[in-house]
Amino acid sequence: MTDTTERLEVDGFALIGRTFEEYVHMFDLDPAALAGQTVLDCPSGVGSFVRTANDHGINAMGVDIAYGKSTARLLQLANTDHKRVVAQLREKSSLFEWGFYGDTDGRSRYLKRAYEEFLDDFEDNRDRYVHAALPVLPFNSDSFSVVLSAHFLFLYGDRLDREFHLPSLRELARVATEEVRVFPLSELDTNRYHELDSIVKTLETEGYTTEQVSVPFEFQRGATEMLRITDV
Which keywords does this Swiss-Prot/TrEMBL entry list (predicted)? Predict the structure, then answer.
């Protein structure tokens, strides 16, 4: 069993989010190539990718189970989880590479900016944010060109089993016309998700093409790859 000092401890699922800039790096995105396309972020959390993507001419939407809550409640939860996560980052800084953020204060600023920008957009453009959760999404097949999924699948492998992951990945592929990208491929203890090879083999048997691709981003030590699913 992994020592808890060697992993980020999260009760349930952290309600935090990332910015557009972080997504560009962790998913190796070309914003200009995505302009005019439809993109789904699932689960989107309290991240600002959707807002900034739309500012760049990308027709982006976000999905999260948290979107059934009021803006005031989301602010309260985001504030609480922000403080908890930053406290752990300070305590367990050796688990992370700090080249992108500089230090824990830099990471904290990104987290805060993400949820503040999200909350403004959530209030003003509620139609961009859909209250739903994997493994069942309320969209027709082929609704989005590209589907992105960050810091949920694989990361919480200690509480989401193979029987959750496979239907969820199939569902993300169902609503995509071109590809699905999932990042990272590691769990909270920084080890590669223990069922990844089995899941990839099953997806390929079902006709999907998968590829584990290096990305220009590393925060969690060793988490430098995403999973691409094509032939969706």
Answer: Methyltransferase, Transferase
Closest CA to 42 of 71, 63, 20: 63
Split into its structural domains, the chain has a count of 1
In a domain, 179, yes or no: yes
Segment 171-211, tens digit of pLDDT: 999 999 999 999 999 998 889 999 999 999 999 999 999 99
Domain assignment present for 17: no
- By the 8 A CB rule, do 144 and 175 touch? yes
CA neighbor of 47 nearest in space, from 143, 139, 152:
152
State pTM to two decimals: 0.94
Q: What is the residue range of 157's domain?
A: 36-230
Q: How far is C-alpha 75 from the chain's CA centre?
A: 19
Is residue 75 packed enough to be buried (19+ CB in 10 Å), middle (13-18) or exposed (0-12)? middle
Establish if 78 belongs to a structural domain: yes
